[in-house]
Design goal:
single chain; alpha/beta; nine-stranded mixed sheet; six-stranded parallel sheet; 39% helix; 20% strand
Length: 479
Amino acid sequence: MKKVLFVTSEAVPFIKTGGLADVAGSLPQYFDKTKYDVRIILPKYVCMEEERKAQLRFHSRFYVRLSWRSQYVGVLETKVEGITYYFIDNEYYFAGAKPYNNIYEDVEKFAYFSKAVLEALPVIGFQPDILHCHDWQTGLIPVYLQNEYKKEEFYQGIHTIFTIHNLQFQGRWMIQAVKDITGLAEHLFTADKLESYGEANYLKGGVVYADLVTTVSKTYAYEITTPSGGEGLDGLMCARRKDLYGILNGIDYEVFNPASDALIWQNYGTKDWAAGKRANKKMLQQFLGFEEDEGTMLIGIVTRMTDQKGIGLIEAVLDELLADARIQIAVLGTGQANFENMFRHYAWKYDEKLSANIYYSEELAHRIYASCDAFLMPSLFEPCGLSQLISMRYGTVPIVRETGGLKDTVEAYNRYEQTGTGFSFSNFQAREMLSALYYAMDIYYNHREDWDALVKRGMEQDFSWNSSAREYEKIYDML
């Protein structure tokens, strides 16, 4: 049996700030348990919910050397649905109201975490064949393993996979400070190793020293080898191209299931979706204060309000769209203050057409997915994206920009061949997005049979974790 340890800075159900937590917490459930023993290790944050912390039991404690420092390491563990979770405990590093703080704090926090994970392996009695490291917070693990631990017999058979969930976040800080924090040798801070544009770069270290590198869609794996998508590391990504794999993320089909979802008003499946979505749409219109009109196209936006998510494109045309179109828009999320205020302004100006919910609610998110006719996701870049997968699962037609995982998962509607699962546009331009919106509205209002067929095709797609797990198993077997 192959032993695999997921090393991550967050994982559901314990701590979540984004899609990384969904991947790290959900994917291990789907491996063939007769062939793979997959476990998870992450920090024990003080900001975790008390009921989650109450599930943990003490395993062991020891001290770890971090350059000139000697730091306490507590190890706790628990099991959730048959998966073993380990937690690294140190309140000096993992205190605070949220998992991530300032980058200068986080570079020391995750250097400590990386060293503590490696030193914890013999303590917990788990000798993995593969350390599967996720994002820059774990980038030092392959570096430490290759340069400090491989001379010890216990570590010699351990391989590493480094998964990039978003290349934009790299864990960069001043070289001299990182030398002091990590205790790594001088020769590792060169342009072919950890140095990047005059700084030390944790993600680069992970890419350089891992045995294999993966990211979360095939198109994104290509995009990060290009100057426009490589975030300054396209040369390195090209150099590692033969070891770089794109494996699409999935979603948990038990959690996101309109037939059993307890958070939506009325459950439905592929056979009774029309009646189910009508009932949910009526309830959402009531909840948001819209006119109850099942014939008006209702568009959902559940997002982080950032430039990456294409909110600037929406801002450029939203006044025109709301003034001219027969449409209702349900917005949920938080982010940059200028975008939050923009949505608030248009919710005031067009209160009968736009509802701005500037907070996050899992319940309202599910209700938007279940109730809306279409879902707008015009991202500048999107390594994988989960919202378009969820929206299709709930019979809500995605309107997306052709980038990363959006391009890989949403097949553009073809009216003549009657194929496709959504609408898409290519260039990051507001007018092009608006054209895609108007095209979708034309099909919705004037070719309703075609629209209904689009909905059904989307609901019949399989983006569960099963296929992703099989792809990762192939990668593990290669190592």
